[in-house]
């Protein structure tokens, strides 16, 4: 019998970013005893780094905005591959979620007449992003944390214990979701500081672990984004949807090397920043795709007029969706028109007075001054694409956020798939995680408190999770030949090779032969990762933590590579050099990844075929009243022939 500590909860939320915290608040308010567990410090999640704002059609900056326009923009941005019901719920509910934040104490920037200010962002027809300078995520997380503290204070009054109904376990990593038969029974985790194992038993688990960026070399993501939630879902028997769609944000820092990939917020372009190549040309005018031609300015003059008079001019092409801008930058650099350090120039200094730049973009000003010794009020920044966000994720029910096929498992935020289709619009993540975080918390609480019997945690599963976690301490190198003794594999070396492979072979522009090469390399790395070994003990041991994260990164990377090889078209965050155009017949197809070995074991899987099985699913037809929001001429560009006939 396992000696691991156990606690009983109704709902366990894995992840304390915006999605996790919003889910936890909802679950607790619905009467479920709720535990939140997070890999890093409480409050230090990607959400806190979000700069630009929360997209919500409040109509404060332009009264023509409404949920229908937001829905249309989101579907266009995602190239119509979005789970349309999620896009609808998101557009309808985002304004309420922003209002709610305000009632919980969030202090948004204001318009002159005192309403919540909204700024422009790529792909959004009207200024729509509610923001706090360029530190919106910080305010969002601060507000949600404050709400959690308020709930804990209520609980203290009633029960004498702050943590009786809502408790945060920080710096703890979940390595397995446990099951009782088909349904979820809890999670297995370790405390990073002490290495101690523990189990949180619960009928419902909400996964809100964010992204996968750390599988790529150049990324805006921080250390904890190793695709854990995606992998946990696969290992629990759930499916991942459309994992080929990875967003490369067009503007990451390119210099100096130590900060390569760090994000340069889209607000810089939203507020008037322009992209130029080494000839000084505003090159984005050459890259407006046909599907967007009617919506974007044809000349610099028209684009510039739009900032003051958006009703009578079209927006500048610097504000095209991110996939388009990233590809354009990539093409300019490849054509030899890049900046000295392999990016292009992003200039705000000639567009706004210095004090306005410092007021509207304070983080960017300090980021460039401190990290690159560049004064953005006086000179242009150098920027290039960086792996930023994953549109693919856990396949969920649109209304309830329940992971398909695993009772008791829920997912929200970046880890959930479908909402953004093939490409996410900026600002739509913060709104997504509020809308679906709330829904996940609500439905997880209802499920957990409504279950007639609690699931039982199986000791054998706990023991095997503990053995799996301890394996790196006893790992052995490959069989020695002729007396040679080889050490175990170094997790850092494996991680670097993985990042290089994904960056070079499954990156922003993809080719069949390179992805096949990537899959072979992933198979090799998988074999070597089973022999990843570490020295020392369980007390704060980052090498050990990385050795455990490798399992997740390898699983997720294989999903991305397999799905990217299968989808023979270019759409949103998936660009195939050998299939350069969008193919309308592919609009109806979702690609689903699941674990080949349904028992969740990894060792037994075929070393060449891999661990992942891919299948196709026909997308659900878009509801007629939502289709009616678009002109027929536009639908013809996206929908397959049979859909148009229907
Ligand atoms: P996160 O906020 O990423 O939180 C994930 C949580 O899961 C963390 O607490 C982490 O510790 C925890 N976790 C992970 N694995 C485990 C595990 N195994 N066990 C326990 N806990 C685990 N979006 C916008 O809409 N607007 C913006 O302006 C914007 N700017 C951005 C700027 C930057 C620099 C970055 C990186 C992203 C930005 N985004 C923006 C995207 C957006 O911030 C993220 O997509 C979003 O915050 C994800 O939220 P989340 O709640 O899903 O996960």
UniProtKB/TrEMBL annotation:
Coiled coil: 508-535
Entry keyword set: Coiled coil, FAD, Flavoprotein, Oxidoreductase
Residues annotated as catalytic: 322 (proton acceptor)
Pfam families: FAD_binding_2, Succ_DH_flav_C
SUPFAM superfamilies in the record: FAD/NAD(P)-binding domain, Succinate dehydrogenase/fumarate reductase flavoprotein C-terminal domain, Succinate dehydrogenase/fumarate reductase flavoprotein, catalytic domain
Keyword Magnesium carried by entry: no
Name listed for the protein in its UniProt record: Fumarate reductase/succinate dehydrogenase flavoprotein subunit
Lineage: Bacteria, Bacillati, Actinomycetota, Actinomycetes, Kitasatosporales
